[in-house]
Design brief:
The complex is a heterodimer of chains A (about 325) and B (about 240). In chain A, about 70% of the residues lie in helices and about 0% in strands. Chain A is mainly α. Chain A folds into 2 domains: about 1-80 and about 85-180, no CATH class; about 180-320, no CATH class. In chain A, β1 (about 125) and β2 (about 125-130) form a beta hairpin. In chain A, α1 packs antiparallel against α2 (about 30-50). Chain A is globular. Chain B is mainly alpha-helical and about 240 residues long. The interface between A and B is large, with 139 and 117 residues.
Chain lengths: ~325, ~240
C-alpha cells in the first residue's frame, strides 16, 4: 500500500534539498536564516510522521514551528538572485515547443483525477493500493512526479537540479506565506480547545430575539459568516452555530427542513471564507504565488460576490426551508 | 470572555498589517495560556497542529515542474493559445473557467484546479493574454486586478461546486455532526441537492462580475470595449 506519510517524506526531502541549495547560494544576503527556515520545515514534515502516530513528543516540533515564525517575522529570511531565462528566450522556446508545454502541466490534474476516481478502487494483496482517505493528496503527489519525468523528457532536461532550482525560486518568493495555512490550522484548534467557539455561540444567541424566525435565519447565516471570518474555516463555525441557533431555533422550534437549513447554513460560512485572510491557503497563498503586490487582492476581488451570495443564501433559506 | 483576546489580537494584527505569521503565533500562545493550557501544552498544540495540517502545504511539490515549464515558456504559450480564440475576452474566459471549476468540483474532482496547478501557470497568463490582444500591455494595477480575479474564479468555483458532490468533507461533516448529535438520518444526497441553488447563484453573481471586469479594464486602459486602440475622449480622467 502506498501511504500518505511516504509522500510527506518526499515533500520534506524536497524542502531539505532546497535548504541545502539555499545554504550555498551566495547571492542571498540572508542565506543562513533562509536555509534554517526551509530546513526546519523539511525536517518538521518528516518528524511529523512520528507525532501523528504518537511515537514522538509534539513539543520539539512546536518549538521548531515557533523558531520558523521568528525567523520569518523578524526578517532573517530572504531570497537569492533568480537564475532564469529571459523573455526572448521564453518566447523562442514557446514557439519551438508549442502545445507540448501543456502536456506535463496537464499531467498533474489528470493523474490526480485518475487516482481519486479509478486507482482508488484498485486493491493489491488484500488492501487498497492507495491509503484510504488520502487518494486525492497521493494523486497530487504521484501526478507531480510523473509530470516532472514527462516534463524533463519533453524539454530534454537531464539535470534534476534545474527544476529544483526553479521551484525553489518560487518558494523563496512566497516566503512566510507558505507556512501560514498550517499555522492558522493550529490557531483554529487552539481556539477550539480554549472555548472561543462556545463564547461566540453564547454572544450570538444572546442577541437573538424570541419568536422571529426570519431574524433567526439572518442571525444564523451572518453568524456563520462572521465566525468563519474569525476562525478561517467554516467547519469550525458549523457545529457551534448549529448547536446555538440552527438546530434548536430554526429546525426544532421553527419547523425548518433540516437538509435545506444545514446545507445552506454551511454555504453561508463559505461566504465568510471568501473574505478572510485567516483562510490563507485560499486567499493569501494565491496572492503570493501570483506575485501580487497587494496580498489582499484576491479577497478584494471576492468580497462583493461574498456579500451578494450571503444575501441570496438568507433569502433562499427563508423562502424554501419553511 | 477572556479567551476572546486571541481573536482581538488577530483582528488588530491583520488590520495593522503586522507580519501574519507573528500575529497568528502570538494569538495562539495568548489564547492557549489564557484558556488554561500550560506552556508545554501550548508547544504541543503547535506541534500537533503542524503535523496534522501538512496536507495544505503539499502543493509545493508541484512547483519544480511548474517552474521548469515556465522557464521554457509555459506562460507565453498559454498567451499564444488564448490569442487564437478571437471572441474570448478576459471576463468571458474567466467566466468559462468558473463554470468548469464548479462542474468538475461538483463531480468530486477538486484537485483538477488550484492556485499552483492551474491559476499561476495557465489561467492567469491566459486571462492577461486575452486582454493584451485587444488593448496592448497591461498596466501594473490592471495586471494585479486580472490576477486577483483569476484566483477568485478558481476559489469561488471550488467553494460553490464541491458541495453538490456527496462525498465532500463539508457534507460529511454535516451528516456526521447532525446524525450523531441529534440522532437523525440525514442523507448526503438531500444536502447536496440543496447546495445546487446556491451554486447557480454563485455562477450568476460572480460570472456577472467577471464579465463586468472587461468594461472596467477597458475603461482603465483608456480604450473602448470594441477592441480598437483609439483613445476615447476623457481618457485622461479615466486612467489617472
Amino acid at each position: 500500500m502506498i501511504k500518505a506519510e511516504w509522500f510527506y517524506w518526499l515533500v520534506g526531502a524536497v524542502f531539505l534539498v532546497m535548504a541545502a541549495q539555499m545554504l550555498r547560494d551566495g547571492s542571498n544576503p540572508r542565506r543562513y536564516g533562509t536555509a534554517a527556515f526551509w530546513g526546519l520545515l523539511g525536517a518538521g514534515f518528516v518528524y511529523s510522521s512520528w507525532v501523528v502516530s504518537g511515537a514522538a513528543p509534539a513539543e520539539p516540533l512546536g518549538a521548531a514551528v515557533l523558531v520558523m515564525v521568528c525567523l520569518a517575522a523578524f526578517g532573517f529570511t530572504g531570497r537569492g538572485r533568480v537564475r532564469t531565462t529571459t523573455g526572448a528566450e521564453r518566447a523562442a522556446s514557446a514557439a519551438r515547443l508549442g502545445n507540448k508545454l501543456f502536456l506535463p502541466a496537464l499531467t498533474i490534474p489528470v493523474v490526480a483525477m485518475v487516482c481519486a476516481v479509478l486507482v482508488k478502487k484498485v486493491h493489491l494483496g488484500g488492501g487498497p493500493l492507495l491509503e484510504e482517505g488520502s487518494e486525492t493528496i497521493l494523486g497530487l503527489g504521484i501526478g507531480s512526479v510523473v509530470a516532472l519525468v514527462i516534463g524533463m523528457a519533453v524539454l530534454g532536461e537531464r539535470r534534476i537540479s534545474v527544476p529544483l532550482h526553479a521551484g525553489r525560486s518560487m518558494l523563496e518568493a512566497m516566503g512566510w506565506a507558505l507556512l501560514l495555512p498550517q499555522l492558522l490550522a493550529t490557531l483554529g484548534s487552539i481556539f477550539q480547545a480554549s472555548g472561543v467557539g462556545e463564547q461566540v455561540g453564547r454572544i450570538t444567541s444572546a442577541v437573538l430575539p424570541d419568536g422571529m424566525i426570519h431574524v433567526a435565519v439572518v442571525v444564523y447565516c451572518v453568524g456563520m459568516a462572521l465566525f468563519t471570518i474569525v476562525m478561517g474555516n467554516a467547519f469550525a463555525a458549523f457545529p457551534v452555530m448549529t448547536a446555538a441557533i440552527g438546530w434548536p431555533v430554526l429546525i426544532e422550534a421553527g419547523g425548518g427542513n433540516p437538509a435545506a437549513v444545514l446545507a445552506m447554513g454551511m454555504l453561508a460560512g463559505f461566504c465568510g471564507t471568501l473574505c478572510t485572510p485567516m483562510a490563507a491557503n485560499f486567499n493569501i497563498v494565491p496572492a503570493a504565488l501570483l506575485e501580487l503586490k497587494d496580498q489582499y487582492g484576491p479577497i478584494k476581488a471576492q468580497l462583493p460576490t461574498a456579500g451578494v451570495l450571503l444575501v441570496c443564501d438568507i433569502v433562499l433559506i427563508s423562502l424554501f426551508a419553511f | 470572555m477572556i479567551v476572546l483576546i486571541g481573536v482581538l489580537v488577530v483582528i488588530v494584527g491583520f488590520a495593522t498589517k503586522r507580519n501574519p505569521l507573528l500575529v497568528v503565533g502570538v494569538a495562539g500562545i495568548a489564547t492557549g495560556l489564557l484558556g488554561g493550557l500550560s506552556p508545554r501544552e501550548v508547544l504541543a498544540a503547535f506541534g500537533e497542529g503542524f503535523a496534522s495540517s501538512r496536507a495544505v502545504t503539499i502543493f509545493a511539490i508541484t512547483l519544480p515542474v511548474i517552474g521548469l515549464l515556465e522557464r521554457h515558456g509555459l506562460q507565453e504559450q498559454a498567451r499564444n493559445v488564448i490569442h487564437r480564440f478571437a471572441g474570448l475576452t478576459t471576463g468571458r474566459f474567466l467566466t468559462l473557467y468558473l463554470g468548469l471549476r464548479q462542474l468538475t468540483a461538483a463531480l468530486g474532482l477538486n484537485s483538477l484546479g488550484g492556485p499552483a496547478q492551474t491559476v499561476r501557470p495557465l489561467v492567469a497568463p491566459m486571462a492577461e493574454g486575452a486582454f493584451e490582444k485587444r488593448h496592448g500591455p497591461l498596466s501594473g494595477r490592471a495586471r494585479e486586478k486580472v490576477r486577483s480575479f483569476s484566483s477568485s474564479a478558481d476559489t469561488v468555483g471550488l467553494f460553490f461546486g464541491e458541495d453538490c458532490f456527496l462525498a465532500v468533507g463539508s457534507i460529511l461533516l454535516i451528516t456526521g455532526f447532525v446524525n450523531t448529535t441529534y440522532d437523525q438520518h440525514l442523507e448526503p444526497l438531500q444536502l447536496a441537492l440543496w447546495a445546487i441553488p446556491m451554486a447557480v447563484c454563485a455562477f450568476l453573481v460572480h460570472g456577472a462580475r467577471l464579465l463586468r471586469l472587461d468594461r472596467t479594464l477597458a475603461r482603465e486602459a483608456g480604450t473602448g470595449p470594441g477592441g480598437s486602440a483609439q483613445v476615447l475622449t476623457g481618457a485622461e480622467e479615466a486612467t489617472k
